[in-house]
Each structure stands twice: as structure tokens, then as C-alpha cells.
Amino acid sequence: MTEAAIKKENKDIARQYKELLRISYQTLTDEDKKLIRSAFDIAVDAHKDQRRKSGEAYIFHPIAVAKIVASEIGLDATSIAAALLHDVVEDTSYTFEDIKKMFGETVAKIVEGLTKISSLKKDKDVSLQAENFRKMLLTLNDDIRVIIIKIADRLHNMQTMDAMRPDKQVKIASETLYIYAPMAHRIGLYNIKTELEDLGLKYTEPEVYQDILTKIKESKEEQDIYIKQFSGVIEDSLQKEDFKYEIKGRPKSIFSIHRKMQNQNVSFDEVYDKFAIRIIYKSEAYEEKFFAWKIYSIVTDHFRPNPTRLRDWISSPKSTGYEALHITVMGPKGRWVEVQIRSERMNEIAEKGYAAHYKYKQGNVQEEQGIEEWLNRLQEALENPDVNAVDFVEQFKLNLYAKEIFVFTPQGDLKSLPKGATPLDFAFSIHTEVGTHTRGARVNNKLVPLSHELKSGDQVEIITSDNAQPNINWLDYANTARARAKIKSSLKEEKKEIAEEGKAILNRKLKSQKIAFNEKTINELVVYFHLKTSLDLFYRVGIGKIDNQKIKEFASSRSNALVSYIKRKIKKPVIAEDLNKDEITAKYDQLVFGKDQDETLDYKLASCCNPIPGDNVFGFVTVSDGIKVHKKDCPNAIQLQSNYAYRIIPAKWIDSSQQDFKAVIRLSGIDNLGLVSEISKEISSNMNVNMKNINFDSSDGVFNGRITLVVKNNSILNTIINRLKKINGIDKVTRE
After folding, report:
1. Where in the numbering of this chain does the HD domain appear (predicted)?
2. Has residue 586 got a pLDDT over 80?
3. Catalytic residue selected from 12, 19, 56, 90
4. Which pTM value belongs to this model?
């Protein structure tokens, strides 16, 4: 480079730095400016020999990222400094220790988090991409600003991607649409989310992007005329009320127009709401709500509203903090148009996300509550290590990006939950203890099943009991990551307790067979019963699946002279591969059918999708070939489900050793006070037994009873029958 070019570049760098300070959303103190200056000097020094693919000095990239962080996102000096330094450790000779010494713990931690993300293995494979995403979220444990700066970094990379190879452009753009745009949306950075989506489309589908962009430019003039017409109708009424306001048109993003065209299968011209009208008014905090509804009434006086399209985000703000009134009205020329009513404060929150909350809540201890709440929710999703990475991403999206519903506690507090949430999800969102002891739920004062889907505005009351505990069916009723993770860990604990009991029972049973209870014997038993872990063995003894008879069979096979002889000849004994693994494995080996999953029927596996145990499946009743089992994502599934819905049977793979079975017992005897209570106490004190139905009829001092129980197996049922026979007054107990 010539000396003149270097001078020009240095001038440009200095100008960019001044602009960074000038456009900062937060008011910067002298201390802040000093911090930013030091970070800037170190960044310039660290990157002095680096150039970007476009040929410009590398330092322009960290400055641009810092400008996005300072102005568009509106973060503090610490974040601006970290943004300036975000590539220093990764690309230059500076270390974390250097950054820590110069800028302190916080900045160093943010830079470390950003470096961790950058050093993740990039791959086209979706599961690896999802795994990267998960690791990226784990850095949130340090500081949420890591993610926010990463989003700014990604935005600038997307804005300056022209010099890259086309295959790299597509890869980065796809990752942006899959990961970064939804995250920006979740944090409340709507402007950035929109830009990321549009840029993503620009590189993944360039022709579609250019086509829509050209059409938007062509229709801009017509749009401006329309907004003028709309404003003209309501201006007089707004001025009469002395409102200070402005009316703007906001074109819908290219990405959202494209999505509408795809979803509704329409052309560009047929998309009717290509823009929204925004009314932004000035007001004091105490009048904000009143003014919003006043403007609403003025707009609806002049234009007929669509009653199903009112969105009141003022009374119940979104969890991102977004507040506004959205109405869709029949505007001039008979066109539906969306009108968004916001105060200046609400508008800033919509554009800046949480930063505007900080600005408007100065001195308030609660200012970080929103981010804290978001972090906590994220933490819950991360707490479940069992979920594989792709499921994790989907679950995360379901829980945090899905449409929200708002429900009330009995005290009238508002709770936000993802769409599709059930009373169980609500219970776990209040507290783990409430969730694990849920016995039932009332929605709007009516008892509902735990699988009931909640709707916005419902008042939910959870009925708890100390004796209640999660069972495997709860996983079918819970949708949020938190509830599912807590139920799974509770079921694991319960299984481990049963396994502890089983261990003691097995010890006694082996002693009576004169067999030593040691690792060698346990290994032999695990191999003999085709299990994987010792816990599997103890658990199945605990629930009675492996009973006296089976242990006697094992003992006799062990003492069989021929078997012993062969065993001695074959030197290498079989050792269970996971003998000491601390878990109870699920063996998907049995298919059950029906809504209550209590029917075992003959079936054939469909050859079109070849389901295997563990797959999500359904049964289809064929005309001549009995029940065929298909995977839920089988290519033929949609056609079968839409054309022959009446022939579809729900189906599920279950672990046969942990399956519950229905059994009906009949009781008769002499009626006396408290007998029913004694019977139900005896049954409920027995682990792994549930009463589905109880019916007693008493006549002239004699009673007859019928109880439907859900038990794991025959031996548990026999134990209960024997115990019931011992109750005073009971004459007969028989199984139906």
C-alpha cells in the first residue's frame, strides 16, 4: 500500500472510532470512554497486519461490530469494549490473561465466550451444527452479552459477505437462518432479526430475494400514497385530542413476504399485508396505556376492525418485553391493513430490546429481571443432558420461540407458557415440588385431565398431594423442557429406589439358593436374563418381573453338571458390557396400541418405512392384511392419516418389563365402618400400583366390591390379593 493510502485508512479508522462514541445509545461517562479507548488501541495494534477477504484492514470489522452493539442494540461500555476485542485472542498473540490484566474479569470472560464459539468445529452436518449451537448456549452461563455480541458479529459478516465463495455464503446464510435469526428474535432484537432473515434469503435464494426486492421498490410509491390516504382520514381526530404523534409505514421484510407467498401459495401481488402502519405517540409513563386505547378507538371509529386480529401486548407484554397494540382494520380501497400503536418508549423497546428497559428503568433493581428470567428458562433447557443435540435445538425452539400463551394462577398472577402447554407444564413452571406432587388440576374451576391443552386467559389451579409422584405417562402430557427434564429425573430416582429394594430381595433369594451374592454372580444373572446393567437386574427383581421361579431356574442351570463342564471348557466367560453402569436401560421391545396404550395386538411392520423398536409409530388397519405399523414420518403417513383417519390406531414401543397392565379384582365380605378406607390404604401403600376405578355396593351388612388396578405384573397383583385377604371382614378376593 502507498503511504497516501495508509494515511487515508488511518484517518478512516479514527473517524469510525469517533462515530462509535457519538452513536452510542447509552450515555458514556469519562470512565466508559477511557475503557473503550484502551480496547480500541489494543484492537488496532493486535490486528494491524491483518486484512479481510475484501482487502480492507481487519480492524474495520471489530469497529463495525462495536457500532452495532453500541447503537442498534444499545449496550454498555463493557459490551462495546468486548466487541472491539472479540477477535483479539483468537487471531493474534494476545492471551486471556493479557485481556484480564488490562480490562478486568468481565470483559475477559465475554471475550473468552466469544472465542469459544468461534473455535467450534464448523460442519454442514445438521447434528454437528446443532451441537455447536448447544455449546454456544452453554457459554451463556458466563454472560448473556456473549450471545448478543455474537449476533452483532454475525450481522456484520452477513452484511459484508460479497467477497466470499458462493458455497461459503450459502453455508453461513443457512446457519444464520437456522440459529442466529431465531435467537435475535428471542432476545427482542426485531430489527436485527429481520435484517438477518433478509440477508439469509439473499444468499440462499438470490433470485427470489432480488425479485421481491424489485417488486417492493416498484410498489413503494403506491404504498406512500396509501399511507397518506390512511393518515388523512384520522389526522383531524388525533389533532383534536392534542396528540403528539407520527404515522409511518413499515414494509414487511422480504423474508416474511416470501414465507407468506409460500405458506399461502400466492403471488407477490396477492399478499395483502405487505406493510403495516405504525402510529408512534409521545406520552408520560402514567398516560401511556390510556393514550394507546384512545388512539385505538379513534382508528376504529374511522375504519372497521377485524375483531379476531386484535393483539393487546400492552396489558400482557411478550416475554421479550415487547409492548404494543396491533389491530387489523379495513383501510381505504377495501384493503386490510395492520395498525401498530406504540408510545415512543414502546417503540424503543421494540427496536433495542432489553437495552431500552435499562434506560427506562434507571435506578430500579428490577432492570435485569427480564434477562435473568430468559437466562433461567434457557438454563432449564440446558439442564437435560439426555436429549440429543438436534432434539435439543427443536425443543429449545419450541419452548422459547413458539407463540406464547398467558395463564393466571389462582392468585391472579400472570404466567407465560409456550403454546400447547398443559397443567403439568404450568405446575413445573411454578416449582419443581409443585410439579412432582401434582395430583390433578382445575382450569377455570373445572377438573381437567393433566393432558388438557391450556389456552390464553385460563386460570389454572394445581391440586397437590404428598403421595403423588410422576409416572411414565406424564412424559406424554408434558411439553416444556423443564417439566420433561424434571419428570425424567424423578422417574430415574424412583427406579433407583426400587432397584435398592430389589438388591436386598435378590440377596435374600440367592442366600436361600445357597448362591453367593457377589459381582461374579450378578454378572452371570445379567447375562442370563439378557440385560445390560446390574441396576436393570435389581430393578426387575424389585418390580417382581424376575421372581422366585426365575431365580430357581437360574440356580438349576448353574448347578447343571453338563453346563458347568462346558463353561469350564470355554475359558473366556461372557461379561456384561455395561455391568456397573449407573442407569436402568429402556428396552423397547413391545408394541402397544390404543389411546390408553393397553392393548397388545397382532401386527406386521410396513415395508415402506421399516420401523424399528423405539421409532415414533402408528397402526393402520388394512382391509386384508391386519394391522400394519408405519413410522410417523413415513412417506405414506400423511396420505393415510388424511384419507383413512378412522383406520389409524395410536401405537407406541414400550419396555415390556416396565409396562403397566390393567387387572380387575372382586371382593366380598362383611360391611364395617372404614372398610373402604382400609382397602384403598392397603393398595396405595403398595409401590407401583394405581387404582383406576373402585366400586362398592353394600346391602344388609354384606358388601361386594370391584376394583380396577394398574400393576406391573402378576406377582405384584398376587401380593396385593394376599394382603387384602388379611383385612378384617373380607371373605373373598378373586381376580376377574
Report:
1. 58-158
2. no
3. 90
4. 0.59
